[in-house]
Amino acid sequence: MTTDTPPTLWDSLPALRDRLADANGLLFCTDFDGTLAGIEINPDAPALGEENRVALERLRDHDRVDVAVISGRELADLRERVAIDGIDYAGNHGLELHRDGESTTHPIARRRRRDLDTIVADIEERLDDTDCFVEDKSVSATVHYRTAPERESEVHDAVETAVERVAEGGFELSTGKEIVELTPTVAWDKGDAVSLLVADHDGWLPIYIGDDTTDEAAFRELSEIGLGVHVGTDSETAADYRIDDPDSVTRFLDWLADEGLAALDSRGAA
Ligand SMILES: O=P(O)(O)OC[C@H]1O[C@H](O[C@H]2O[C@H](CO)[C@@H](O)[C@H](O)[C@H]2O)[C@H](O)[C@@H](O)[C@@H]1O
Predict the structure, then answer these.
(1) Interface confidence (ipTM) of the complex
(2) Residue 157 shares a structural domain with residue 75
(3) Which portions of this protein are annotated as coiled-coil regions (predicted)?
């Protein structure tokens, strides 16, 4: 993993234009929270802004562009929030996929649902008298402590204890922005979801854009073959480039739907 802050994407747009002009097509993959929508206190609040919707639809409508939204959110929640037809979706960090109109869930994740229900109930009981709460995402769960940051270690302890009690080794913990994520122990992440899509797009340029720790797997997957863009100023990222915040993502989407598509169309024009 690169430890230097990657260069800003804005200085590299001429190079990106060249890569698009050489590519068979564009596979545009994006995270949702902190990328397409800003971070909010209430996890129910984030919505896809109109400018982003228009740009993503313009990309979708190009015959040599495919779009995928890849999120830690539950697939049903993500699809409802984004609500763009004709694109691919991955929910629960890739454990749920919606491709070509069909939804699938990783079989091991499906089998662990009952254990997860018990774990969620246990965590809820342990955190009952706090402001922390559990977002039950059917095959994974997220414990939110944004409104009680002083409870961070208490949340970790509660999740660890609940997993040990119910299904030791069956679930793993990861951290995100003021959250602890609890996912079934399965060798499958956002990087694998991206790699599955890349396999169907020979000679296309894959781009992945995201802001959080689970997006790093996708950046690593694309390090040799595509382009990763980290949203934020963290230095520890495997992404090739960075941009500041979700507003910058909107500007980039606008550029891509305009100049990026023009570059793609210029292939063979000279
Ligand atoms: O992969 P993503 O699309 O980035 O999803 C990651 C998690 O995002 C959500 O939590 C984050 O956003 C919330 C709303 O802005 C915020 O309140 C929370 O503190 C953030 O961590 C979502 O609720 C989780 O399920 C996703 O896993």
Answers:
(1) 0.99
(2) no
(3) none
